[in-house]
Design a protein that fits this description.
This protein is α/β, with parallel strands linked by helices. It folds into 2 domains: 65 residues, Chemotaxis Receptor Methyltransferase Cher, domain 1 (Orthogonal Bundle); 190 residues, Vaccinia Virus protein VP39 (Rossmann fold, 3-Layer(aba) Sandwich), CATH 3.40.50.150. Helices cover 43% and strands 20% of the residues. It is built from 9 helices and 10 strands. The strands form 2 sheets. Strands 6-2-1-7-8-10-9 form a 7-stranded mixed β-sheet. A 3-stranded antiparallel β-sheet has the order 3-5-4. A hairpin with a 2-residue loop joins strand 4 and strand 5. The longest helix has 21 residues. The chain is globular and about 65 Å long. It starts with a helix and ends with a strand.
C-alpha cells in the first residue's frame, strides 16, 4: 500500500482547523509543515497519521500545536505608525470629546492581546498624552492562558523593546535580570482576561477604541462578521476600531464603520 504523505498532512491540517476554529488555508504549506514538524518532534512522533491519532486523544497536545501555529511576533509597536496615529490623532480627539461631556475616563479593549505588548503600548501612549488625573481602563483579552500569564507578569527582553524610544523604556520599565519589567503594573489599570472572540459576547461595552490587529487572518468569514458586530456593539458612539494593515472589513459589515485612515486601517463606529 502506498502512503500519501501529502494526503495525511492535508487531513491533519483540516482536523486542526475544525478543532480550533482557525482557518489555516491561507498559510503556506512550508510554514505549516515546519511548525507541525516541530511539535511532532517534541511529541516523539515521526509521521502525520500518528500525530493525528495523538491529537484525537490528547487535547493538551492540540492546544500546543495551535499555539505553535499561531505564535505571534512579540515586539512593542512593531508597526509604529498605527500607534503614532493613535497617539497624535485618536487620543486628542477622544480627550476633546470627553471634556465636552465632562468625563475624564477612557476605556480601551485590546482583543487577542497575546503576550501583552499591545495593551502596554496603549497604556504608555495614553499616559503620555492624557492628563495625570484621567482614568485609563484597558481590557486585554486572549484565548490562551499561557499568553495571559506572561502578559500579566510584564517582563520583556531588550529585543522586544527595540522599537521604543530609550526615554520611554527608562520611564516605563525597570531592569529585571537580563530583561525588563513594566514599572507599576497595577497603576496602568490593565485587566487581563481569557476570552474567545469566536464564541463569547463582548467583555464589556462603552469602549473608546478597540484594537484587534492581525487576528482576522485566523478566522473564517462567519467568525469575522460575528467578531466585528461584537466590536460595534462594544464601542461607544464614534469609537475607534484599529485592525491589522493586511486585513480588510467584510462587505457585510462595512456600513457599520467609516474609514478614518485607510493606510493605518483605522475606522470609526457609524
Amino acid at each position: 500500500m502506498v502512503i500519501n504523505v501529502d494526503d495525511d498532512f492535508n487531513f491533519l491540517v483540516r482536523k486542526i482547523s475544525r478543532s480550533s476554529g482557525i482557518v489555516l488555508t491561507g498559510y503556506r504549506d512550508s510554514y505549516l509543515k515546519r511548525r507541525i514538524d516541530l511539535r511532532m518532534k517534541a511529541a516523539g512522533v515521526d509521521n502525520y497519521a500518528k500525530y493525528l491519532r495523538l491529537l484525537e486523544r490528547d487535547q493538551s497536545e492540540m492546544k500546543e500545536v495551535i499555539n505553535t501555529l499561531t505564535v505571534n511576533v512579540t515586539e512593542f509597536m512593531r508597526d509604529k505608525t498605527p500607534f503614532m496615529f493613535f497617539r497624535e490623532e485618536i487620543l486628542p480627539d477622544i480627550m476633546e470629546r470627553k471634556k465636552q461631556c465632562k468625563s475624564n475616563i477612557v476605556r480601551f479593549w485590546s482583543a487577542a492581546c497575546s503576550y501583552g505588548e499591545e495593551p502596554y503600548s496603549i497604556a504608555i501612549c495614553s499616559r503620555e498624552v492624557l492628563p495625570d488625573d484621567w482614568t485609563v481602563s484597558i481590557y486585554a483579552t486572549d484565548i490562551e492562558e499561557k499568553c495571559l500569564r506572561g502578559a500579566s507578569e510584564g517582563i520583556y527582553s531588550r529585543e522586544q523593546l527595540k522599537n521604543l524610544d530609550p526615554s520611554i523604556v527608562m520611564k516605563y520599565f525597570e531592569p529585571s535580570g537580563e530583561d525588563f519589567k513594566v514599572k507599576n503594573i497595577r497603576k496602568l489599570s490593565i485587566r487581563f482576561q481569557k476570552h474567545d472572540l469566536t464564541s463569547e459576547a463582548p467583555v464589556s461595552k462603552h469602549f473608546d477604541a478597540v484594537f484587534c490587529r492581525n487576528v482576522m487572518i485566523y478566522f473564517n468569514e462567519g467568525q469575522k462578521i460575528k467578531m466585528l458586530k461584537d466590536f460595534y456593539e462594544a464601542l461607544s458612539d464614534d469609537g475607534y476600531l484599529i485592525i491589522g494593515k493586511s486585513e480588510t472589513l467584510p462587505i457585510e459589515i462595512r456600513e457599520l464603520f467609516a474609514p478614518v485612515s485607510v493606510k493605518e486601517k483605522i475606522f470609526k463606529k457609524v
